[in-house]
Amino acid sequence: MEKQTGCVHIYCGDGKGKTTCGMGLCTRAAGYGYRVLIYQFMKDNSTSERKVLLLSPNVTFVPGQDKIKFSFLMTPEEKAEQKRYYEEQFQKVTEKAVQEEYDVLFLDELPEMSRGALEALRQPLEERQITISRVYGTCSYPADFQLVAAMNPCRCGHYPDLSRCTCTAGEVSRYLGKISGPLLDRMDICVEAQAVTYEEMEGKAENESSASIRARVEAARAIQRERFKGLSIRCNGEMGGGQIRRFCPLNKEESEFMEHIFFSLGISVRMYGKILKVARTAADLDGREQILTKDLSEAVSYVRIRQKYWKNG
Least enclosed by CB within 10 Å: which of 17, 91, 145, 302? Predict the structure, then answer.
């Protein structure tokens, strides 16, 4: 079975369904036979999403403690012990993911992880392996996985709705600051889940069926298998710089559009390449060889959230 690589980042306020979206992606991956490792901060160990996932032998659940809350009655030593336990739990998860070669890693409440642990994900996301250097030598371990992450915009979960958000500007900045610019650069798709309105909840509109979506995805994967036949890569997400230039050519209109995006959004070279790879996939899903402006626009929409929340990221 072919592995998928890449990163999906789900971002929205509290109670808007980010965990359900992430669990849904993991459920589908487990159904296809991929091994899934989930690290979730849970208030209730009997959530419906977890019950569904536990039915699959391909899913391993590692429940973390709920968000760290320091009481005024706690001594500095107790606070340090609580924080140390929390970081040790996350370390166990990352080691398990490497040693047992899981295909999907889902991190719920992403900013609750320590920044050092999150920054350690940068190398495996980029190189699909982890290199550990010690005095007596260096060892590399395979870490070819797909990362799915979910987070709130602030600790209370209501920013930027200032009528409900109880966080100060500094608290919001520190919370978002846990996710660095270089880590965001490694996110292929970053989406914001909007609150569902009553009209949408009660609406009778029909959505595209899962069977139809699956057929389009399988067709796109077949296109990619043919495209990369004889090469060391399997899908668009694994393309390097030279392969991007070869397989993602742009016409004049599309090239001018990307030039405007590059300078107006101030994106990095890495992010520029990711936009082209996502646009390549959007074209594949439509069964087209040529990348159009609408494909590029869709790909750009998945990174614009940085300009909304991480203005200096």
Answer: 91
